[in-house]
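LAB NOTEBOOK - FOLDING QUEUE
OPERATOR: T.R.
BATCH SIZE: 2
PURPOSE: Compare the predicted structure-token outputs for two unrelated chains run back to back under identical settings.
PRIORITY: normal
REVIEWER: second-year student, initials M.K.

ITEM 1
FIELD SEQUENCE / FIELD STRUCTURE:
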Amino acid sequence: MKIAFNKVARENSYSLEIQNEQFSVKAHFEIKPKSASMLHCNLTFKGEIQALCNRCGNEIVEKVDENIELLINNGIFDGFDENLDVVEVLDDFVDFDEIILSELELISTNYFNCGQCEDTELEF
């Protein structure tokens, strides 16, 4: 779902689903204005991701239940925020699908163990 930055309803919410071979997630965005060119976003999502066990390489399904706060800036962000990630909108459109996919990709890079490998110790 892409919406022009100036058309994003202030203090509103947007919901979407991502269904593909790697992710099955329902997401919800709560938007509040922070300035004329910046929005504060609270992103929550629940569902499942396909991942690989980092020890044996078997495919596993991991549950995700995340709450992420971020800033959406219309244009290049000139500054730094210690507490929140900043998403820069460079074409005047907020792409909610891209934001959620980016966060899911980041989570999928975490270290996961399948049930068989979780209880075994590594031998050196």
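ITEM 2
FIELD SEQUENCE / FIELD STRUCTURE:
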Amino acid sequence: MLKVRFKRLHPDAKMPSYAHPGDAGLDMYTIEDRTLAPGEQAMLKTGIVMEIPEGYVGLVWDKSGLSTKHGLTTIAGVIDAGYRGELAIAIANVGNEPYTFTKGQKVAQVLIQKVEQATFEEANELSESSRGAGGFGSTGTH
């Protein structure tokens, strides 16, 4: 099992944790009380730093209940292995009502995943594919 070390920077900080066995995402908790108005963005502090092993990344995702019930969505969601600063969750209120976060509340989830480093080669032509250049909506809306 992969080991990810963390350090508390604040006495109210909670260790990231999986809510259920087999869950993909670690719950992340805020150390702040903060209200976000509709259209407002904020960086919610977690009070922790993590040491993600080389070759892995932390990807920040919404908590589904906060997203679907209150219109709260995470923005900017990559935690590189070399980052050692405090984790703060960038979140936006795209809903219609103000939302208040309270200290100790789950605010997002982080998935720890392997990273593949790519090399790039410039080419005059690319291979054909069945999709081609079809982008947004190219497979239909139904």
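REVIEWER COMMENT (ITEM 2): The first strand starts at residue 5 and ends at 8.
FOLLOW-UP: none requested
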